[in-house]
Amino acid sequence: MDKVKKLPKDIEVIWRLNALLDCTILLAITLIIFIGKTFVSKGMQPFLLIVGLVFLGLTILIPLIEVMLVNYHWNYWTYYIDAQQVELRHGFFFRKQIIIPIARIQNVTLKQGPILRLKNLQKIVIETAAGGNDISGIKNDEADNLKELIMKLAREAQNDL
Predict the structure, then answer these.
(1) Is the pLDDT of residue 17 over 80?
(2) Using CA atoms, how far apart are residues 119 and 142, in angstroms rounded to an integer?
(3) In the chain, where does DSSP find H-type helix?
(4) Which UniProt keywords apply (predicted)?
(5) Helices 45-68 and 11-37: angle between axes, nearest 10 degrees
(6) Half-sphere exposure at residue 83, Cβ-oriented, CA atoms within 13 angstroms
(7) In the chain, pLDDT over 90 holds for what percent of residues?
(8) Is the Cβ–Cβ distance between 120 and 140 less than 8 Å?
(9) Are 74 and 11 in contact (CB under 8 A)?
């Protein structure tokens, strides 16, 4: 693991599905607002109409932006693992670099929900005393190998202290 790696291309499908799920949730909220508008007093109806129109705009705008930015998000999400650290980099407008010293790692967990399962992907959660960070969307076999590698390096680093 001596080089910077990218997430598999399949994660883009998952991110698009998440955008669709966001759209569905916002649409449900919008419908509840418009239906609820008929059951309130006449004084509240203009307010709920405005709130409903705002949610309708968000229902269209937010998932559209999410889908448009999927390629950029994938291009700027990388990770690097060596004997001293796990380095995570992501973000295209606001870049974030997380460096986790191997000696500080307490646990590595693999998680897989139904959406990740569609593409045989898993999330690797790297836990330290300060919290957890994750690498989302690693292929199943690679995720198992990375988990074993990180835990092996962590045990060796803690034995050296």
Answers:
(1) yes
(2) 13
(3) 11-37, 45-68, 70-75, 114-118, 140-160
(4) Membrane, Transmembrane, Transmembrane helix
(5) 170
(6) 3
(7) 63
(8) yes
(9) yes
* Residue 91 pLDDT exceeds 70: yes
pTM: 0.81
DSSP 88: E
Domain 76-160 in this protein, CATH class:
mainly beta
Q: Check if the beta carbon of residue 134 is closer than 8 Å to that of residue 122.
A: no
Structure tokens at 6: 């990218």
Q: Position of tokens 């448009």?
A: 68
Residue 36 backbone dihedrals phi, psi, to 5 degrees? -65, -25
- Contact between 83 and 101 under an 8 Å Cβ cutoff? The reply is no
Beta strands in 91-147 (DSSP E): 96-101, 107-111, 121-128, 131-139
Q: pLDDT tens across 45-68, in order?
A: 899 899 989 989 988 998 899 899
Residue 85 structure tokens: 């650290």
> What is the residue extent of each domain of the chain?
11-72, 76-160
Beta strands 85-90 and 96-101: pairing type? antiparallel
